[in-house]
């Protein structure tokens, strides 16, 4: 055999043995370990959602129970008072509560005239 033929056979044999060793290590060691870890992650992921839901429901229920009733009454009364005040102003004054009254409109017209404008008397 020539030197180049023997060198080629040696390279192919070495590459084959290295690839077989790497494949065996992947197949027998790494892949079962990764499968086990993925299974445990899937199991943990499925257990998280119900636990979070229970925790949120429990937390909301406890916080609502801990609130004094006067806090609910005060909040509702204050917002109702503001709403009624806005509604009564709108009902009594109509759009003038937003746009201004007739006196405000006349005043703005008067102020819009230039100061040097004559009133008709000379």
Can you walk me through this structure?
The chain is mostly helical and 122 residues long. The chain is built from four helices and no strands. The chain has helices at 3-66, 69-93, 96-99, 102-112. The longest helix has 64 residues, at 3-66. The radius of gyration is 43 Å and the shape is elongated.
Brief characterization of the structure:
The protein is mainly alpha-helical and 122 residues long.
Query: What about the largest sheet?
Result: none
Q: Which spans of ≥5 residues are poorly predicted at pLDDT below 50?
A: none
Quote the distance from N terminus to C terminus. 133 Å
Strand-residue proportion: under 5%
Following the backbone from N to C, one meets helices and strands in this order, namely HHHH
Mean pLDDT: 76
Large-scale geometry: elongated
Count of individual beta strands: 0
Q: What percent of the residues sit in helical stretches (DSSP H or I)?
A: over 70%
Q: Which class of secondary structure composition applies to the elements?
A: mainly alpha
Number of helices: 4
Which radius of gyration do the C-alpha atoms yield? 43 Å
Keywords:
single chain; 85% helix; mainly alpha; 4 helices; 0% strand; 122 residues; elongated
